[in-house]
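> example.struct
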């Protein structure tokens, strides 16, 4: 009886494990990678072109932060939210109005923490106005946002995101031509690049953040709340959510464990342990994301125990 009972427990545990793997793979595409080396531990349809919604804002923030670093751009500079920022943005949870004055830093928080479309557009409009000289031919034919999106695509090319096309700074794909697209592999490449910036890591790690903006001489405050429900759990300290009717629910997670120290004789090697999960076209992104992260650590431990050998064909 005791043996039968134990067999039953093992059997149901295996069933539960199989069910969790099936649900984890329910998304249209996913990828699990060691963020330190870029080694892909597992993927499903990792190169399939899909819409990614507001994951696009990772590229937007990266271009803004690159501009600030290279051109000594002041993120504490206040800029004006333009009328064009409200065209087709579909929602305005913060309650911005044209003419509001807000710092670039608070716009970055709004875009990354609460995934605000108006903030993303305003960032692109301001920084794009500084980048106009980068456009070919007659720059007068292009808007500041055109110049900014051109820089987003230049960054994608630099990162070998060969199956990606950005068409705007927020990722809206409703009645947008041409259609934007990317892949799980390409978004993983972008995320590794972004997470190498201490400032970006800090923005996306905030569960909430108060921002301020001026309207007709009055100071207004708003508390942003992070759209990533898994933030702060399971060692997760980023990165971003995305959603649209075309994209479904998308999610990129970045999680950490304490570094592993391996000693061989007198030599000591420290291995940082950072795991990245990209999930596109999900219907239940947070439970699927949590399941994939658990699976990812199992795969990571097996890979580490086998000597961390990385097939060059499986590197981002």
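> example.seq
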């Amino acid at each position: 009886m005791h043996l039968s009972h134990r067999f039953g427990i093992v059997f149901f545990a295996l069933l539960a494990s199989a069910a969790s793997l099936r649900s984890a793979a329910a998304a249209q595409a996913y990828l699990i990678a060691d963020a330190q080396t870029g080694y892909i531990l597992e993927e499903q349809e990792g190169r399939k072109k899909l819409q990614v919604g507001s994951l696009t804002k990772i590229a937007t923030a990266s271009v803004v932060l690159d501009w600030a670093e290279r051109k000594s751009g002041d993120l504490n500079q206040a800029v004006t939210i333009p009328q064009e920022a409200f065209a087709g943005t579909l929602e305005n949870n913060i309650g911005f109005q044209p003419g509001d004055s807000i710092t670039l830093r608070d716009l970055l928080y709004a875009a990354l923490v609460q995934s605000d479309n108006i903030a993303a557009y305003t960032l692109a409009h301001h920084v794009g106005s500084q980048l106009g000289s980068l456009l070919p031919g007659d720059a007068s034919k292009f808007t500041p946002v055109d110049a900014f999106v051109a820089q987003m695509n230049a960054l994608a090319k630099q990162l070998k995101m060969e199956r990606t096309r950005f068409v705007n700074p927020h990722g809206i794909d409703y009645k947008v031509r041409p259609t934007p697209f990317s892949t799980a592999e390409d978004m993983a490449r972008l995320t590794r690049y972004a997470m190498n910036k201490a400032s970006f890591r800090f923005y996306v790690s905030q569960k909430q953040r108060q921002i301020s903006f001026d309207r007709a001489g009055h100071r207004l405050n708003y508390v942003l709340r992070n759209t990533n429900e898994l933030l702060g759990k399971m060692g997760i300290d980023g990165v971003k959510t995305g959603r649209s009717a075309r994209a479904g629910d998308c999610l990129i997670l970045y999680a950490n464990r304490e570094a592993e120290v391996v000693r061989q004789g007198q030599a000591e090697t420290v291995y940082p342990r950072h795991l990245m999960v990209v999930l596109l076209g999900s219907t239940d992104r947070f439970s699927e994301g949590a399941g994939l992260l658990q699976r990812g650590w199992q795969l990571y431990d097996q890979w580490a125990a086998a000597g961390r050998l990385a097939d060059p064909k499986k590197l981002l």
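> remarks
The longest helix spans residues 2-24.
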